Amino acid sequence: MSSRKISTFKFSIAAILVVIYFQINVLVNQDNNIGKPRWKNNNVITWDIREYYAYLPATFIYNDPSFSFLDTMKGNNKGNLTCGKSPIGKYVGRVSIGMAVAYAPFFFLSDAIANISGAPRDGFSQPYQWGIYISGFIYSTG
To answer: 87 to each of 45, 69, 77, 82, how far by Cα in Å?
Structure first.
């Protein structure tokens, strides 16, 4: 292996280790820095993440990728699933599904954990919050 490839490899490993260090530091010290961690108070799937993520529970939990179930949905999760309305009154996703595809492996694992543990299979309970939280960690170090 040439010396240039070795130095590039060493730099890459060092950069990955620095990112992992900061990620672990945030995970461990989140209680001290900003109060209760986001995943503990179900506050990971918010803002734009909620819009990208909405395709997953709509399709795989509520079995309705057209979002028409929102008309009859009750409870706190109705506010979690936001989407636009077309000129003819149909619900439409306002964002592309690309991030939902990236979240999908973590969603399916979280869904299995929710099913086994007895947590609500609503797409927004603690296992799903953890799944999205871990996805950010994994993708940022990959």
So the answer is: 28, 18, 25, 17
